């Protein structure tokens, strides 16, 4: 399956929101989920360090990954949200998006990536494990994973 990845822009916001809903419905097995707060995604489109990458097939966005850059006590990227449309999973799109996020971190001389995953989301846990992420902290219903880049 041929797909491309690129940095997202404000015009991509609606489909990113749709993919966010799909991700939440998958994780929590319910349609009773809430989307992003109004304006939440703006910081990813503001030319700051926080970015979103999307994957496209023939111009249709089928996945995204949002990357926050943290430079407080420790310097790291945080994978905030990450979703590939159900019908396109298993085609390497998730790997490509995660690779984009990690390459971006390296371009900023950042050497640690972190993210949270729900303990019940075994598919995601296996995916992150295959990609070198390790459990850093058990936080009740979810785990904090990290990877040295």
In a few lines, what is going on in this structure?
By secondary structure, the protein is of the alpha+beta class. The chain is 27% helix and 36% strand. The chain has a 7-stranded mixed sheet with strand order 1-2-3-4-5-7-6, sandwiched between helices.
What this model shows, in words?
There is one protein chain. The chain is of the alpha+beta class and 149 residues long. It has a single domain (4-148), classed as Gcn5-related N-acetyltransferase (GNAT) (Aminopeptidase), CATH 3.40.630.30. The protein has 3 helices and 7 strands; from the N terminus they run βαβββαβαββ. It has helices at 13-28, 93-107, 122-130; strands spanning 4-7, 51-57, 60-71, 75-84, 112-118, 134-139, 142-148. Strands 1-2-3-4-5-7-6 form a 7-stranded mixed beta sheet, sandwiched between helices. The radius of gyration is 15 Å and the shape is globular. The mean pLDDT is 95.
- Total number of distinct structural domains: 1
C-alpha end-to-end distance? 28 Å
Query: Spans of 5+ residues with little confidence (pLDDT < 50)?
Result: none
The CATH topology comes to Aminopeptidase
CATH architecture: 3-Layer(aba) Sandwich
| Quaternary structure | single chain
H-E string: EHEEEHEHEE
Inertia-based shape: globular
Structural class: alpha+beta
What portion of residues is helical?
25-40%
Helix segment tally: 3
Taking all Cα atoms into account, the compactness measure Rg is: 15 Å
**CATH superfamily membership, which one?**
Gcn5-related N-acetyltransferase (GNAT)
Which CATH class is shown?
A: Alpha Beta
Number of separate strands:
7
Sheet-strand content, in percent, reads: 35-45%
Outline the biggest β-sheet. Answer: 7 strands, mixed
Q: Major sheet: order of its strands?
A: 1-2-3-4-5-7-6
Mean pLDDT: 95
């Amino acid at each position: 399956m041929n797909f491309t990845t690129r940095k997202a822009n404000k015009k991509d916001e609606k489909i990113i929101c749709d993919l966010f809903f799909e991700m939440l419905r998958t994780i929590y097995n319910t349609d009773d989920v809430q989307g992003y707060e109004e304006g939440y995604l703006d910081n990813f489109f503001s030319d700051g360090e926080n970015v979103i990458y999307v994957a496209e097939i023939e111009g249709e966005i089928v996945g995204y990954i949002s990357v926050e850059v943290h430079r407080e006590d420790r310097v790291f990227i945080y994978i905030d949200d990450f979703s590939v449309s159900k019908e396109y999973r298993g085609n390497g799109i998730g790997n490509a998006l995660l690779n984009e996020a990690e390459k971006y971190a390296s371009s900023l001389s950042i050497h640690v990536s972190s993210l949270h995953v729900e303990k019940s989301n075994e598919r995601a846990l296996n995916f992150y494990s295959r990609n070198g992420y390790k459990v850093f902290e058990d936080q009740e219903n979810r785990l904090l994973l990290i990877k040295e880049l």
